[in-house]
Structure formats: C-alpha cells, structure tokens
Amino acid sequence: MNYSAKVMDHFANPRNVGEIENPSAVGEVGNATCGDIMRIYLKIEDNIIVDVKFKTFGCGAAIATSSMATELIKGKSVDEALTLTNKAVVEALDGLPPVKLHCSVLAEEAVKTAINDYYKRNGIDKVVEINGHECDGDCSACGKQH
Q1: For a tag on the chain, would you pick the N or C end, based on fewer CB atoms within 10 A?
Q2: Where is pLDDT greater, at 61 or 133?
Q3: Domain range spanning residue 34?
Q4: Is 135 a catalytic residue?
C-alpha cells in the first residue's frame, strides 16, 4: 500500500498524542469491522479549542488521520471545528489509499462526537448529526456502522 510522506510522518511522529486532564469534552468512536478506536479530548475556552489530544488504537492510517484532525482543529472555534470533513483530513495528508478512507471518516466523527459531548456538558441545546443521526460513539446503541 502506498502512503504519502505526510501520512508516514503523522504515523511515525503523531502530533497531540495523549489525554487532557479535566477535558471540556471527550469523543470516542470505533469501527467494528476494522477494530479501530479513536478517542479525542478537547480543552475549550471561550468557544476556542485551546488544546486537543488523541489516543487511537488502530492502523497507521488511523493514527495519521487522528493526528492530522487534531492539527486542523487546534486553535479553531467550536463552529470552525464542526466544518471539519474527512475529505479535508485526506487532502491535508496528501491522500489515502481507498481502502483506508474509513479512517478519515472516523477522525471526523470523533471530533464531532467530542463537540456533542461539549454541548451536553454545558447545557447547550444543539446536536451535531453525524451521517444523519446523533452519534455518541456507541455503535451498538443505534446499530449504525461507521
């Protein structure tokens, strides 16, 4: 499988790895088919994502897409982070093999699930829909496959 230099760099030297103590939000998603699990932690102050960390269990593409997604939303407003798409993650990594595109979808969903968590924790009456449904990362709860 051919990976771009950026994918290899983010796999070998992932940015923003770890956990945030007392995070403003946490989002976790998983793909039952491939076994990848992504957890993203957000620290939000005045509606700005001032810090973001991730822990991903999965293949190199899953780690690279998690790393790039954190880079793309760090320092952005919550509303700006909501505009993150898997396509933007793939483009920022200079592409992914077609069989690995689902990793970029997981990265987008992890960010949006974390923002849903932020809204719930703060009593904000908004729901971010992911693939046409509210997602809390628990695939068994709704039966949707990511």
Answers
A1: N
A2: 61
A3: 5-121
A4: no
